[in-house]
Amino acid sequence: MTAVIETTGLSKHYPKGVRALDDVSIALEPNRIHALLGRNGAGKTTLMQLLTGQLIATSGDMRVLGGHPFENAQVLSQTCFIQESQKYPDGFRAQDVLAVARTLHPQWDADFERRLVADFRLPTDRQIKKLSRGQLSAIGIVVGLASRAPVTFFDEPYLGLDAVARQLFYDHLLADFAEHPRTILLSTHLIDEVANLLEHVVVIDEGRVLIDADADELRGRAYDVSGRADAVAAYVDGREVVAQQRLGGLANATVIGPIDAAARAELDAAGLTTSPVSLQALVVHLTRTPELATASL
Ligand SMILES: Nc1ncnc2c1ncn2[C@@H]1O[C@H](COP(=O)(O)OP(=O)(O)OP(=O)(O)O)[C@@H](O)[C@H]1O
């Protein structure tokens, strides 16, 4: 399938040796929800700014919907970028933002916009500078969803949003995505909250791609083992382990690798139980132990 977002050796360097993005090559398939994950300062915002024509790359190439995004009205009219700290003109109210957004996005759905405004309880006639942090985030979420842009970037869109509002965002995103498939690139630190939405995961670390994998494949890269401490110790001996915990006579270990038939038989014989690793735990482990992230490919 042709990628809707493609980068080749994309880099953004700043003076004093800062490599905000370094030789990034990714290809994202259309009509999927992709996650862009990584620690603070990893380069997520930089990548999104490059892909939306807000920054010029130091080197490398990129294509969004087949074109280079920089000053490309045709590409940009088909994309929507929701940033964490969006600035608005003085005196603007949410309804002004929505009015502008309506003109920018050809696929805008006004009915959906109204439903979202009501669900997020967004006071559209209040000045933006008087809105709470969460209400400010809600504006971005309404725009990002109602735009129905074929390529939508959400860069940590929910700073300050309460748990109910975050769940509303996930529910609306999933329901609307099912009816109107499009390409979503979502950057977040709340990995477990969005794990069920994700189909593909890109993790960057210090500007470089650390993991680029389908979410299911990634989940299959490790498993948790728990049971009697001596049995767990015997099982993990000679295997790649990224985390271990011991509580009295019991232990738990996170083991890298798929569970094949032989491993399963060994686990059964030892009376050990297994469970899937959470995506967040796995990303944390692999980011801490980068050699395992690539070794287990
Ligand atoms: N204008 C700039 N000048 C110098 N360094 C910069 C500039 N913009 C970004 N950086 C650096 O580039 C790196 C990547 O920043 P970026 O904002 O892309 O990270 P991020 O992954 O979005 O982080 P976070 O999760 O904290 O939002 C950081 O080390 C940052 O300090």
Automatic annotation (TrEMBL):
Pfam (any one): ABC_tran
Source domain of life: Bacteria
SMART domains in the cross-refs: AAA
A molecular function GO annotation: ATP binding
UniProt key word ATP-binding: yes
InterPro entries: AAA+_ATPase (IPR003593), ABC_transporter-like_ATP-bd (IPR003439), P-loop_NTPase (IPR027417)
Annotated ABC transporter domain residues: 5-231
Alphabetic keyword roster: ATP-binding, Nucleotide-binding
Protein name as annotated: ABC-2 type transport system ATP-binding protein
Organism taxonomic ancestry: Bacteria, Bacillati, Actinomycetota, Actinomycetes, Micrococcales
